[in-house]
Amino acid sequence: MALAKKGRTVRVGARGSALSRAQTAKVIAQLQELSPETTFVFQAVKTSGDDPTSRPYGSSGVKGLFVKEIESALLSGQIDLAVHSAKDMTSLLPDGLVVSPAGERDDPGDVLVSGPNLPLDQLPAGTVVGTSSLRRSAFLQLCRPDLVILPVRGNIETRIKKIGRECSAVILAKAALNRLDVQSFLPADAGVFDIPLDVMAPAPGQGQLALERRDDDSFAESLAARLERLPAALALAAERAFMSRLGLGCTAPVAAHCSLAEPDRLFMRAFLFEAGSREPKHVALSRRGDSAAEAAELGRLVASKLQE
């Protein structure tokens, strides 16, 4: 069945930030290759999360703020597809919407953008490190309790520009840096250092772009299916099911990462930091499976064991 329908225009919505535009351009380029006779048009949607005064930093409630207006635009027919960072999405979708991975997952890890040009384990005691993430803060307190954590706000460029002014380093998602040309605003002597996953586990969905559509749009469904890759689909299913089982009201720092350990075996590990406890709960499970349903079941099982 041909994907292309001559003369058709597909409106692709996303946030208007530089990172979101770069991510959406990447997805549109892939879609254009799949359907060269279709015109894909980017449409910026302003979200509540783009207003710093409305963002509850350090709370899981920030997720919905980055997608609510975009999902409303999908449901009303203003746009036909939406591109998100999967980690920004809530675990439950509005009725009538479906989500799938947009291509392979990028590196899910975090990086330290370091003004002193030193990795995390070599920063001097008392160094001020900027992050507004409860997850990152919790792992920092676990591995480097001698550092000072400063909440920082703003987009990636804004946070990087705080280096040398308000803090000495900031922690960011590696995938975000890979998708943006950050060299133009990196401090001259700064270094970028990977933080190992066994030191700082990622947020659920981190590194994965997601494509959201209406469930009754067969043309969008055909496009999304061609972009889907099995390892990414399994990881997304497991991590979204994990967050759903934990509950939308969960505001504790949480991390989860699922991957294909073998062609038919899934491996997932997750961490949950509870109030009053410096050490996180930790669960690691491996199960046979190569379907989204099996991946989702693993995600729910991991979440249930964390809550025991």
Please characterize this protein's 3D structure.
With 308 residues, the protein is of the alpha/beta class. It folds into 3 domains: 1-103 and 208-228, D-Maltodextrin-Binding Protein, domain 2; 110-195, Periplasmic binding protein-like II (D-Maltodextrin-Binding Protein, domain 2), CATH 3.40.190; 229-308, Double Stranded RNA Binding Domain (2-Layer Sandwich). 31% of the residues lie in helices and 24% in strands. It has 9 helices and 13 strands. It has helices spanning 18-34, 62-65, 68-76, 134-143, 156-161, 174-179, 218-227, 230-246, 292-306, and strands spanning 9-14, 39-44, 81-85, 97-101, 110-114, 128-130, 148-150, 169-173, 191-195, 209-214, 254-262, 265-272, 281-288. It has a 5-stranded mixed beta sheet with strand order 2-1-3-10-4, with helices on both faces. Strand 1 (9-14), helix 1 (18-34) and strand 2 (39-44) form a beta-alpha-beta unit. The longest helix has 17 residues, at 18-34. It is globular, with a radius of gyration of 19 Å. The termini are far apart. Mean pLDDT is 91; it is low at 57-61.
Largest sheet, if any? 5 strands, mixed
Distance between the termini: 49 Å
**CATH-defined topology of the largest domain:** D-Maltodextrin-Binding Protein, domain 2
CATH class of the largest domain: Alpha Beta
DSSP helix fraction: 25-40%
Shape: globular
List the total number of helices: 9
The total number of structural domains is 3
Reading the helices and strands in chain order gives EHEHHEEEEHEHEHEEHHEEEH
CATH evolutionary superfamily of the largest domain? Periplasmic binding protein-like II
Give the tally of β-strands: 13
Contiguous low-pLDDT stretches (5 residues minimum) are: 57-61
Radius of gyration: 19 Å
**Global structural class:** alpha/beta
Overall pLDDT level? 91
**CATH architectural category of the largest domain:** 3-Layer(aba) Sandwich
**Strand residue percentage:** 15-25%
